[in-house]
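Below is our example:

___
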Amino acid sequence: MSTESADAAEPGTAAAATQAPAPPTPAPSPSTATAAGPAAGNPFAPPVFGAAGPDLVESGTEPARRRRRFGTGALFLTAVLAGPVIGAAVGYAIQSSRPPTPLPALTAPKLGYPAERVDAAALAAAGPPPLNIDGDLRRLLIDRPAGSTDRTDGDGDGWLSAADRAETFGDSEDMFVEMLGNGFRRAATVRWKSGDDTYRVMLVQYVPESVVKAITGMVPSGTSGMDVSKFPGNDESVLLVAKEPYTYARSTETYYYGEAIARKGTVLMTVQVYAKNPVDRAQLEDIAKRQWERLA
């Protein structure tokens, strides 16, 4: 008895003939394999970059591309670079549209020469006057009285430098600077001692441009405690006699002071007295008058 199914058909029978074989799988076309990638075709083929998938190809649309955006720094750099270029172009366009302006003609002063010769005497008279007191100032000083002791300042030759002159003041450093600033030129002096009193007669000459300022600065601004007058023969003179004693610089010894001041041109005349007792006004006036007459 057979155990096979009745439906089984042996080869060559009608039942076997009715079962058709499965159709073979079609090979992918080159276009399909390229679009689908290596998985759809040859697995060893390199991938094709930028290829669209089958879904995009079939729908007929392009893939979306990423838009590039410029940052703030790039925009600022562009404005910085473009600004001068645009400004130069606009300025050139404006300047080129203007009509040219002609330059002024070159001119120079015409040289002129006097037709006549210059008179030397007239030229000297038109210039600044020379020093009205020149030469050796020591010859204009009065002689010290007979019987007095010579106490000449400086090197003993009668001349005084700016430093020697400044040493006769208590604030010698400030006086030295002031004298040079006031146009100090030279000075001559004679000094003597009679009894307890010391006299100094001095002629100080300044440059013409500074003589007024220098002489004005020599007159004391404060005359409190002094008798102020003028000695005979000079209305522009000043005679000062202190009522109270003073103290010598760097000492405790006291003295009475008197001074006569007058000017002759660029020369300042001063007569000073340092006395142990109150100053004899008549004697100071006499010395000042005699010295003034030597200058006049």
